[in-house]
UniProtKB/TrEMBL annotation:
Family classification: Belongs to the Gfa family.
Keyword Lyase among record annotations: yes
Protein name (Swiss-Prot/TrEMBL): GFA family protein
Domain of life: Bacteria
Lyase listed as a keyword: yes
CENP-V/GFA domain residues: 1-111
Pfam family, one: GFA
Species of provenance: Gilvimarinus xylanilyticus
Coiled coil: none
The entry's keywords: Lyase, Metal-binding, Zinc
Gene Ontology terms for molecular function: carbon-sulfur lyase activity; metal ion binding
InterPro entries documented for this protein: CENP-V/GFA, Mss4-like_sf
Length: 130
């Protein structure tokens, strides 16, 4: 998959992904004013053009963005060495919502597909502890 930020100064190359996870955690909602539409990458991700700015948002993660236009690029899970990319970067991909995480933190003012798998924050952390 190939994508880019809003201004085009950062291009992203990533493995082909078709499933979107939504993260409703308070940090993702504060970062983007809604759930993060996340593409979990299993494989190499590369950035070309400008270098993404990184912010260490917790002990286990960094968030990346374009310093020119502010586009949210990724959530980088440090222990797993895994990029979780913003789905909006890849406009030409056909994607399906398959999972929602931190549903226990989702505010009541919006709702999404009833068919997606839903996990609480505790369930998400337990998954990565295994």
């Amino acid at each position: 998959m190939k994508g880019h930020c809003l201004c085009g100064s950062i291009e992203i190359d990533a493995p082909s992904i078709h499933n979107i996870d939504l993260c409703h955690c308070s940090m993702c909602r504060r970062w983007g004013s809604g759930p993060m539409h996340a593409l979990h990458c299993e494989g190499d991700v590369s950035f070309s053009g400008d270098t993404p700015s990184r912010y260490r948002s917790s002990e286990w993660a960094e968030r990346g963005f374009c310093r020119q236009c502010g586009t949210h690029l990724f959530y980088y899970l440090i222990p797993a060495d895994q990029y979780i990319l913003s789905a909006g970067l890849f406009q030409q991909q056909e994607l399906s919502l398959t999972q929602e995480t931190f549903v226990d933190e989702k505010p009541d003012y919006y709702s999404l597909q009833a068919e997606s798998k839903k996990m609480t924050g505790a369930e998400v952390f337990a998954q990565y502890e295994q």
